[in-house]
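Fill in residues.
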């Protein structure tokens, strides 16, 4: 019994794939064959008007807030390094750094609550977002 590769190769040699509809044109991947047809129009309208399903917009919002919190902490870290290099009061600088870390941890705690809520609304487990590990985040800002 011939294998599938041989069958396809023979068909190609015989020209079975010549002159197919849409040949030489890009594939249209707009329609998802696995989406319920009733939802296909809704997804199309959302996409055409610059929107995404609610769970995707929530995730994007969480990701943006996480990035902003990380950037703010990075600015304080940079200020800390520069202030220490200038010889300013180490006790005061470390106090400010401690406050910034605490504020970041509070922000991450709030984001993790939103992530838990988000994970309950996604249609499939593969869309779950992993919670943010404060220790890992703060480890990036160590000497």
């Amino acid at each position: 019994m011939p294998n599938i590769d041989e069958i396809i190769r023979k068909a190609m040699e015989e020209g079975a794939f010549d002159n197919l509809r849409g040949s030489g044109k890009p594939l249209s991947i707009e329609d998802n064959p696995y989406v319920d047809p009733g939802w296909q129009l809704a997804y199309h309208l959302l996409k055409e008007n610059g929107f995404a399903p609610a769970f995707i917009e929530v995730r994007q919002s969480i990701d943006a807030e996480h990035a902003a919190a990380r950037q703010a902490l990075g600015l304080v870290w940079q200020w800390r390094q520069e202030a220490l290099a200038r010889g300013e009061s180490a006790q005061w600088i470390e106090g400010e750094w401690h406050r910034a870390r605490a504020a970041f941890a509070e922000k991450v705690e709030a984001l993790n609550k939103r992530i838990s809520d988000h994970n309950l609304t996604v249609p499939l487990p593969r869309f779950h977002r992993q919670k943010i590990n404060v220790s890992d985040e703060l480890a990036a800002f160590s000497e």
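DSSP finds five helices and no strands in the chain.
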